[in-house]
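Reagents: none. Just compute today. Sugar phosphate isomerase/epimerase.
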Amino acid sequence: MPSAPEHTPPPLAGIGDEAAPDLGGQLAALAELGWKRLELRTVDGTAVAALDERTFDRAAGRIREAGTDVVAVASRIADWSRPATGDFAPDLAELDVLARRCAALDTRLVRIMSYPRDGLPEAEWGRRVRARLRELARRAEDAGLVLVHENCAGWAGDRADRALELLAEVDSPALRLLFDTGNGVAHGYRAPEMLRDLLDHVAHVHVKDAVTAPDGGVDYVLPGHGEAGTAECLRLLAAHGYAGTLSIEPHLHLRPHLRASGADPGRGDRSAFVAYGHALEDLVARTWHTGGRIRRPGGAARHAEDDAHRAGDGVPRAGDGVRRAEGVR
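Predicted 3D structure written out:
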């Protein structure tokens, strides 16, 4: 008699500032969930690369003391705040800082995007993006980092063919993809359809979900409760053998992109973050079928397969709801 499909859940994490602006609150939210993995974006509203040395050292120490792994750093490189018409120097400088800080945090993954167009002709936009990412990937490879490009703002953010073209032209082990399950609602594409074309290249996953509001805006909801196809994305990833982390980015209370226009970005919310984490655990239990026994996702127990790729980044080692009218950020 054939055995039942095995529920072998992936490591679960969360972007900490979606729970609280301060690091203590971020770690407390993870502890409440029983998770030991953090995706670090900001501390007290300041990006990781912009923290002063003393503040960063103190933060890294607190993360270590909590026994928490940093699975990725969400950077500002090529994101919604840095159009392709802007100076390239801030991105190079940020990567230089993150090369040192990721080593201190024992993580390799750095989230990037591919530059808003800002009025450039289509061909020139693509040319600049590819040239810049070639240089960024070269420097990342030298530093032992892996840049993970998110399907969000930028030239390759909403089209699978462009994401594949970017990977092919850059042609570096230091550039892979981050797939966000919820961004398609705001950016006008079906996430599962896009993911099917990109599965071989996905090294990190953000989990969110959304619905289209009657006025055409976007409301963000618990995972599996929206129209983004989040459950289908999880099934696709499981069937494909995805070995990285699922990191929640609820967008229920924090809207980082609003800083660019001077508006209030909001604040993380611990109770909403924890509820979102539990909702993902339930969704994973229903959808993540990999081939015996059922294990609770994201819990304190560490598994041999998890230890094989420390912090769950899924990257091969060399040598071994709240309304938002704009797109997801």
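The first helix runs from residue 23 to 33.
Action item: order primers for follow-up constructs.
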